[in-house]
Amino acid sequence: MTDADTSPAVSAAVDEIRALVAADGGDVDLVGAGPDGIRLALVLPDEACRECVMPKMFLEQVAAGIATKHGAPSPVIIDDPRDEAG
Known about the structure:
By secondary structure, the chain is of the alpha+beta class.
């Protein structure tokens, strides 16, 4: 993966994923993208939205479907700060 891929397909997929997560109070940052997939970092601005955003495994599945719909590479891997918190 590289951070150089800002193709229209990747941008459209990330925008749609961002809108999905924003509805629950979160955000995503594009970490990297390439032919082998997209990596996003989940951003949770405060404790209140930690439980509102769907679990990582489900979010990755939904995000992969969005990426495929836009013709962007899949899988979508999400770095989730909740994993670090235990």
